[in-house]
Design a protein that fits this description.
This protein is an alpha+beta fold and about 100 residues long. It is about 20% helix and about 35% strand.
Length: about 100
């Protein structure tokens, strides 16, 4: 599966992905940021307890830009300039199962 259309709804803070199998997926940007796969964010989560719930500023959960990486992933650039997370398509697809 691969995305055929990717859109960010800034008003609702939703990433909307239309997949090749006709699924339309809506992912809250806060969920994307909380689950950022980059090494920095993963290390931060490991340092906290399992009950850790981060409090994000509006800049931290607002998407500034989205770049497609090859034919396998998205790089999301957040308004606070955090840009090291590479969200591969299979990882994004799992958000529809939550």
């Amino acid at each position: 599966m691969f995305p055929v259309k990717i859109k960010y709804d800034a008003e609702k803070n939703l990433l909307i992905i239309n997949w090749s199998d006709n699924l339309e997926q809506k992912i809250k940007s806060a969920d994307l940021r909380f689950n950022c796969p980059c090494a920095i964010c993963q290390a931060e989560k490991e340092e906290q307890s399992e009950s850790y719930i981060p409090i994000y500023s509006s800049e931290q959960i607002s998407i500034q830009d989205i770049k497609i990486i090859g034919n396998y992933a998205l790089n999301i650039i957040w308004k606070d300039n955090h840009d090291t997370g590479i969200y591969d398509f299979s990882y994004l697809r799992k958000f529809s199962e939550k």
